[in-house]
């Protein structure tokens, strides 16, 4: 649902992949089992994003894509395309 809402609002839904990648990296540094037990596991979240990304991108394109990736994210995405393909 959140992926669709951000896309409809004009935010690139691929940004969610970067956000959750950072969250996963940060949570791996600490024991987060109890604090995130009500949330999907990183693996399930990735699978859900893979499943819903095509429709989210349709919504994003239909919205006119008002909010673009900033240059730093573009550089990161281009340099780590192999990693991000895992999420797509």
The structure class reads mainly alpha
Strand-residue fraction? under 5%
Counting DSSP H or I runs of 4 or more residues, the number of helices is 5
Please summarize the sheet with the most strands: none
- Order of helical and strand elements: HHHHH
Query: Would you tell me the overall average pLDDT?
Result: 76
**Cα distance, first to last residue?**
17 Å
The total beta strand count reads 0
Helix content: 55-70%
> What would the principal axes of the Cα set say about the shape?
globular
Quick synopsis:
By secondary structure, the chain is mainly α. It contains five helices and no strands.
Keywords:
single chain, 88 residues, mainly alpha, 0% strand, globular
Protein model, in words:
- The chain is globular and about 35 Å long.
- Helix 1 runs parallel beside helix 3.
- The chain has 88 residues and is an all-alpha fold.
- The longest helix is centred in the middle third of the chain and has 22 residues.
- It contains five helices and no strands.
């Amino acid at each position: 649902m959140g992926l669709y809402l951000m896309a409809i609002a004009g935010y690139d839904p691929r940004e969610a992949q970067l956000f959750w990648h950072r969250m996963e990296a940060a949570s791996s540094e600490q024991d987060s089992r109890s604090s995130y037990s009500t949330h999907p596991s990183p693996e399930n979240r990735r699978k859900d994003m893979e499943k819903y990304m095509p429709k989210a991108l349709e919504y994003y394109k239909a919205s006119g894509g008002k909010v673009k990736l900033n240059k730093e994210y573009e550089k990161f995405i281009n340099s780590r395309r192999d990693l991000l393909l895992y999420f797509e």
